[in-house]
C-alpha cells in the first residue's frame, strides 16, 4: 500500500514539474538595474544594485555615484546595533555595501522557487529572529533561526567565482558574502512563469532586520528593489504574503507600486543611463565590471551546476537533482566514508568496519527522497503540494558522501542540509568536549553545557539532533520564555541577536571577517573549510534548526543525515524517517540513535529538549499519523 501511495505522490509531482527554459538575459539585467537607478535618482538616494541568477551567479553590480557614505569611508553599511545591550559578534560592524546587495539578492534567489513560493529578504527577517512572530513575547524563535549563517564564503559546498575559470562564474550554487540576509531590499525575479534570479539593493546606512513587522517602515532599499522587479515580478499567488507557516501569515513587502516616485515603464535602456549617475563596479571574488551585463543560466541544466540525476539509483519516475562540476560529472555521488574505531581511544582516520558503505549511502538517500516525495509541504503553493527537500549524508569526519534534491526545491538547502548533517555529527562525537576545551573562544560554551547537564555531555554519550542543538542555542531556555536562562550554546538574551548567535557565530566569525577584508582588498580570502578546528567536521559551519540527525551502527556514531528545503518538521520527517526506512531495508545495524542515547533524555531546569518532531497529517495520500513514533 505504501508503495502505491508513493507512486501516486510521485506522479502528482511529476505532472506539475517541467523543465526550466528561462533565464535572465543581459537586457533583462540591464532593464532591472535601469528601473532601480531611476527610482533611486528620483529619491536622491544613490544605491548599489546587484542582480544574480537562480544559482547565485552575479550578473551585474551597479554602483551609483555617492552611494553609502559612512564613518569608515564611502561604500559601507553598518550591521545593526544590538537594541537590547552592548554590541557583540557582528553587531555594529561595517561591511561593504556591494556585499550587502549581493547577499540580499542571493537570499531572495535561494529561498524562492518556480512553482511553490516566492520569498523576499523581509520574509527571511520574519523567520530568523528570536521570536516568531518577531516581538511577540513568550513565543519560540523563528523556525529558521540560524539560517543567516549558511551559504558562507568558507563553505566547501558552494562554488567560488574565479575569473580565471569561466565555468565557475556559471556553476552554482554560489556562496554569499555575508551569509543569508534578513535586511529588506531583496526580491526574486520571474520570467515566463519561471524563477530566474533576484535583485538586491543597498541604499541606506543600515544592514539589519524588520524588528516590528506590524508597521510599514517605508524601507528605501525595498522600494528601489521593488522598482527593479517590475515586469519580472513574482506571481502574486506564490508570494510569501499568501502563505502561512505555523498558522502565521508571512511577510513579502511593505513597499507597493504606489510608493514609487518614478514610472518603471519609462526607464531608459541600460546603455542610456547617464554616466554621471554611476557605472558597473568590481566586487572582488564575485564580479568584474569588464564582463558587462552577464547572461544568467537556465536552472536545472549542467551549466547551472545542478541537473537531474541520470543514474536511476534513486527514482526512474521523477529523478532527483544533483550538483555537477564543469565536466557535468556529479560532485557528490554516493561513496563510502570513514568511521571511528570500534573501541574508545585516539581518534583515527583509517578505514573502519563501522563506516558507511556506498550501498548504504545510496539506500539512505533513496529512502529519504521517497519520504520527501510523499510529504505534505508546509510552505509551497497551492496548499496540499508535496514537500521539496535537499538531502545530504556525511561520514564521521564530516565528509559529504552523497547529495540529492527534489526538483524545484530551495537552492539554499544544498549547503544548509550539509550543515545540519555535519552539525549533528560534530555535537554527538566523543571528542567534542576536548575540541571546545582547546579553543579559548569556544571553551565557555563547553563549560555552560557542563553546568546544564554534567561533565560528560559532549563526550559521545548523548546523540544530538539539530532540533535539540537548536533549543540549546537560543537565548532563552525553554525557547522564547522571558526571564529564563540562555541555552549553553547561546549568549544571554541582552547580548544575543541574529548577528551574534553564540557558538554558531564564534566558530565562523573570523572566516566572515576575513572574507569581508578580502572584498575590501585587505588580504587573502577566507580558507576552506570553515572554523579552522583541528577536526574539520564543520566544513561549512554549524547549523541550529531542525532537520539533522546522527547516524549510528549498533550504538556507535558513524555519520549524519541532513534535510532542508521545506518546513522544519518536514525536514525532520524526511531525514529521521528516511534513515529509519533505509535501516529496515538494509539490516546492517545502522539507523537512528538508540532511544536511550538521544538528547531528549536530558533534563535541565525541569525542561527536556525535543529530538525529532514530525508534522501532523504528514503525507499527501495517507491518513497515517505519528510516523516517527517509536522509531
Q: What's the structural blueprint in terms of helices and strands?
A:
Elements: H1 2-16, H2 26-42, E1 48-53, E2 58-64, E3 76-79, E4 94-96, H3 97-110, H4 121-127, H5 166-170, E5 186-191, E6 194-202, E7 206-207, H6 220-229, E8 244-245, E9 248-249, E10 278-280, E11 306-308, E12 321-323, H7 358-374, E13 390-395, E14 400-405, H8 413-428, H9 432-437, H10 443-453, H11 466-471, H12 503-519, E15 548-553, E16 556-564, H13 568-586, E17 590-591, E18 603-604, E19 607-608
Parallel strand pairs: 3-7
Antiparallel strand pairs: 1-2, 1-6, 2-10, 3-4, 5-6, 8-9, 11-12, 13-14, 13-16, 15-16, 15-17, 18-19
Helix pairs in contact: 1-7, 2-6, 7-13
Note down, in words, how this protein is organized:
By secondary structure, the protein is of the alpha+beta class. The strands form six sheets. It has a five-stranded antiparallel sheet. Strands 14-13-16-15-17 form a five-stranded antiparallel sheet. A three-stranded mixed sheet has the order 4-3-7. The N terminus is likely disordered. The protein has two domains: 274 residues, Haem-degrading domain (Beta-Lactamase, 2-Layer Sandwich), CATH 3.30.450; 259 residues, Beta-Lactamase (2-Layer Sandwich). The longest helix is centred in the C-terminal third of the chain and has 19 residues. A hairpin with a 4-residue loop joins strand 13 and strand 14. The chain is built from 13 helices and 19 strands. 60% of the residues are buried. Helix content is 25%, strand content 13%. Helix 2 runs antiparallel to helix 6.
Amino acid at each position: 500500500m505504501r508503495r502505491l501511495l508513493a507512486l501516486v505522490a510521485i506522479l502528482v509531482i511529476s505532472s506539475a514539474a517541467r523543465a526550466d527554459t528561462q533565464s535572465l538575459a543581459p537586457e533583462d539585467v540591464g532593464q532591472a538595474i535601469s528601473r532601480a537607478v531611476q527610482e533611486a535618482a528620483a529619491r536622491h538616494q544613490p544605491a548599489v544594485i546587484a542582480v544574480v541568477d537562480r544559482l547565485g551567479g552575479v550578473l551585474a553590480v551597479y554602483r551609483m555615484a555617492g552611494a553609502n557614505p559612512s564613518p569608515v569611508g564611502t561604500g559601507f553599511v553598518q550591521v545593526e546595533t544590538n537594541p537590547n545591550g552592548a554590541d557583540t559578534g557582528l553587531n555594529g560592524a561595517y561591511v561593504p555595501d556591494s556585499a550587502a546587495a549581493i547577499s540580499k539578492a542571493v537570499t531572495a534567489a535561494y529561498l524562492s522557487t518556480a512553482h511553490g513560493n516566492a520569498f523576499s529578504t523581509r520574509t527571511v527577517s520574519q523567520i530568523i529572529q528570536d521570536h516568531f512572530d518577531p516581538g511577540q513575547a513568550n513565543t519560540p524563535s523563528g523556525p529558521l533561526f540560524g539560517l543567516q549563517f549558511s551559504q558562507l564564503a568558507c563553505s566547501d559546498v558552494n562554488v567560488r567565482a574565479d575569473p580565471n575559470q569561466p565555468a565557475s562564474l556559471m556553476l552554482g550554487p554560489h556562496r554569499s558574502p555575508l551569509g543569508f540576509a534578513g535586511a529588506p531590499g531583496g526580491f526574486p525575479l520571474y520570467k515566463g512563469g519561471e524563477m530566474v534570479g533576484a535583485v538586491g539593493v543597498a541604499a541606506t546606512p543600515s544592514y539589519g532586520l524588520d524588528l516590528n513587522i506590524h508597521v510599514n517602515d517605508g524601507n528605501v532599499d525595498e522600494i528601489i528593489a521593488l522598482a527593479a522587479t517590475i515586469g519580472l515580478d513574482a506571481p502574486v499567488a506564490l508570494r510569501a504574503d499568501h502563505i502561512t507557516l505555523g498558522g502565521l501569515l508571512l511577510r513579502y513587502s511593505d513597499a507597493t507600486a504606489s510608493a514609487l516616485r518614478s514610472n518603471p515603464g519609462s526607464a531608459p535602456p541600460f546603455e542610456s543611463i547617464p554616466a554621471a549617475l554611476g557605472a558597473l563596479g568590481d566586487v572582488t571574488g564575485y564580479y568584474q565590471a569588464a564582463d558587462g551585463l552577464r547572461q544568467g543560466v537556465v536552472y536545472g541544466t549542467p551549466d547551472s551546476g545542478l541537473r537531474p540525476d541520470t543514474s536511476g539509483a534513486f527514482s526512474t519516475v521523477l529523478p532527483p537533482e544533483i550538483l555537477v562540476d564543469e565536466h557535468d560529472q556529479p560532485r557528490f555521488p554516493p561513496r563510502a566514508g570513514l568511521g571511528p574505531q570500534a573501541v574508545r581511544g585516539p581518534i583515527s582516520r583509517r578505514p573502519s568496519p563501522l563506516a558507511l558503505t556506498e550501498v548504504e549511502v545510496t539506500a539512505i538517500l533513496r529512502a529519504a527522497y521517497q519520504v520527501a516525495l510523499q510529504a505534505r509541504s508546509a510552505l509551497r503553493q497551492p496548499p496540499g503540494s508535496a514537500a521539496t527537500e535537499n538531502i545530504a549524508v556525511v561520514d564521521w569526519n564530516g565528509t559529504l558522501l552523497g547529495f540529492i534534491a527534489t526538483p524545484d526545491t530551495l537552492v539554499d538547502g544544498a549547503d544548509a542540509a550539509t550543515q545540519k548533517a555535519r552539525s549533528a555529527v560534530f555535537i554527538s562525537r566523543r571528542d567534542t568536549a576536548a575540541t571546545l576545551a582547546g579553543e579559548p573562544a569556544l571553551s565557555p560554551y563547553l563549560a555552560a553545557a557542563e553546568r546544564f547537564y554534567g561533565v560528560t555531555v559532549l563526550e559521545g554519550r548523548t546523540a544530538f539532533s539539530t532540533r535539540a542543538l537548536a533549543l540549546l542555542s537560543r537565548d532563552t531556555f525553554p525557547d522564547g520564555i522571558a526571564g529564563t536562562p540562555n541555552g549553553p550554546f547561546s549568549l544571554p538574551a541582552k547580548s544575543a541577536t541574529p548577528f551574534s548567535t553564540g557558538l554558531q557565530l564564534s566558530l565562523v566569525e573570523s572566516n566572515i571577517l576575513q572574507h569581508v577584508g578580502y572584498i575590501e582588498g585587505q588580504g587573502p580570502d577566507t580558507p576552506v573549510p570553515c572554523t579552522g578546528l583541528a577536526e574539520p567536521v564543520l566544513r561549512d559551519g554549524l547549523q541550529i534548526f531542525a532537520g539533522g540527525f546522527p547516524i549510528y551502527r549498533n550504538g556507535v556514531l558513524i555519520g549524519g543525515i541532513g534535510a532542508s528545503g521545506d518546513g522544519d518538521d518536514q525536514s525532520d520527517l524526511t531525514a529521521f524517517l528516511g534513515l529509519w526506512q533505509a535501516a529496515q531495508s538494509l539490516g546492517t545495524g545502522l539507523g537512528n540513535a538508540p532511544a536511550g542515547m538521544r538528547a531528549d533524555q536530558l533534563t535541565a531546569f525541569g525542561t527536556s529538549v525535543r529530538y525529532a518532531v514530525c508534522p501532523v497529517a504528514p503525507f499527501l495520500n495517507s491518513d497515517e499519523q505519528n510516523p516517527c513514533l517509536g522509531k
